Amino acid sequence: MSLSPGARTSCALLLVVASATAASAQTSPHQQRREQLLRERAAIDAQLQALDAADTAATSPIAGSAEAPPVTASSAGPDEIVVTGKALSLTTQVTGQTVTTINDAAFRNTPATTIADIVRLSPGVAVIQGNGPRDVGVSIRGSNARNSFGARNMQVFEDDFPVTQPDGLARFDLTDPHAYGAVDVVRGPSSARYGNYAIGGAVNFRTRRGREIDGAEFGLDGGGDGYANLYGTIGNAGRDYEYSLFGSFARANGSTGHTHYETGTINALATYAFSDRDRVTAKLIYNEGEFQLSTRLSYNQYLQNPYQQGCDAAATAAPGCGTINVFVNGVNGTRIAQTAKEGDLARNDRRTIVGARYEHDFDANTTWRTQATFDSRVVNQPTSANPFKGTLDSYNITSDVTNRGRLFGMDATSFIGLFYNYLDNQSYTFNKTPAGRNGFGALTQTVFGDVRNMGVRAREELQLTHDLQLIAGIGAERSILDVRQTAYAYPTTGSTSATLTVIPALRHFWNVAPEAALLWQASDALRLHARVGTAYGIPQAGNLFVTPAGVPGNNAALKTQKSTGVDVGAELVLGNNLRAEVTGYYEWFRNEQISQSAGVNLLAYTTNAPRSRHRGVELGLHWKPLPGLLPGAKLDASYSYNDQRYSRYDERLSGNGTSALFDRDGNRIPGVIPTFANGRLGYDQPSGPLAGLGGFVEVTYRSRYYIDNGNQLRIPGYTLTNLNLHYDPPKGEGWLSRLSFFASVQNLFDKTYVGSASIIADSITAAGQQNPASVLMSSTGSIYAGTPRTVYAGIKTRF
Question: How far apart are the first and last CA of the chain?
Fold first, then answer.
């Protein structure tokens, strides 16, 4: 007997709720005295934390108030013990680097159907639709803009547990945004702190804490295209423990043809202090989903039929429908065209992450932390003419020591840590047959092997004067890719016997990443920082075995991409009425890894661009313009400008019986959106009988951008408008204070726009000339349309 993802989620949630709410035994006098001392200690720690926060408040000035680090209290009541972590946080209150924290006040009364609704509020971040209806592509300073699915070139965490596997891939459809209380976005080259693949920085999702939930909450969201999300969370905190448990089941039909999905999620975090010096934290993420996928279109197809309506069968399909070509027998010979619905293109993925973190205080100033995470990704993806299956299990272990003391007569925070992670890769690629979702034909390739990263990190935060702080760090990492591809080649007709070609790849990489920063508190309101950071990202295993022709083969000579970047920034905080940040950056890349599509029936491939440069400006603003007259009025805005170009790259194009070399120096790097801006103007009634009643108008702007190395075809920009009304009263007496509501209209003016565009390969004529945009507009495998006007509404109750 098998259960749907939602049923499994619901059953597991009920079991954990039953266990968590079991009655506990009465405590002894000895235990009561111990708990009283712990309460006093927690109150002292909280006051110290508040003093520290006052000195560092500007590290998170935009999109919501700064929050405490994970498992750290910002305040403690006289009858409450909050479990407190003392080790240096990976992603929260990062000193000397550009960081934005977005707390749940910015998104808890919105549909929040994907994490795009959260991270787009941060400067330096652009979002696009990923590979499917719930997947999201997130780009920090253009770092992930050229990938058609998942998250690359950044490190992703949840509650400081790694969500990026050792091969550099994370996914943003893993969990439900309703689980989160805050999101930290760390920007800039960051391998000294995060290791491999931290090219653009890091994102840390923080689940809501038990002390904030303090009971149970249940909600139901609904909207157009069959969208529904039923979710619930429980949480509490006691004298020496804290826990939260979240579960949800979401479904939707999708605005584009053949994009229905159902997905279930469990997300849990628990911390227990079993002595005054020892704490343990446990983390669980489980997600399983069934996703139908449409095909990516050419630009011409998008103009004809952006939402792929009437695309049931290839023989009777409406104009503009995308198709794939599959072998009738699944091996060789005759091919037929199928639409996405006809071939039942889909994903059925399962992700399980289990982690544990132990902290021990050697003394009041020194903390040892050890963390272990197991991450299992099981994929079944008949998403194209070459279905993919795989099991990718990974292990991540870190151990570090944080000391807060004195160095050379100055206050200092010292950190040193070791890390090791391992990925076991077992994946298979097939030919697709006409038999729908289960139409897996003959094998075309297998990739077996492992990825290992190990190394050391050190960091020193030194208080030179009362107002000036020096931060220096370094990371050294040894990476080993030991993988092998077996390629299966079949005769064009007749025999189904395969010729096997084995391509081994044993690559060793040694990378060192230093960083340094100065942080100057110029006044109570103004903080300035300057930073030099470095980053690196080795090739991913799958990149080594796809040739520029888009077929399995030897591409094992790919090089590590490296970057060095300079940031100069300022943060201004004027009470609660004005918080602003501005950062300018310039980054130099060597061997930047460029991915692009070879066509709808072919695989995406990766190559190196020897030299490129990235530069830009990021702005953020939170402003209450009339605090006396209209205390609930506010403006939140973010702006990002990215100018990213090749500075040395010669690309060879072949076709039509000829070959030619093209100089790409000075061309814009495709996929990178030059300008991305988001603004919200809203009002929330702060007090009185209508406290919690509010709404906002939100405008998102994205400029046009190129999707090919030759800068021939440019995708149009767009401006979208969203409207939101909500009622979220403060906790109080009466049943009405336990309810909250929202209604939202996304894409108010029903704009048709490109939600996602994969990078396409340029082509040449028989005379060796580059084809113009009019030809590239017929290149398939690129475009998904964005979501049309959609109405959502939700209700939530708390107990």
Answer: 35
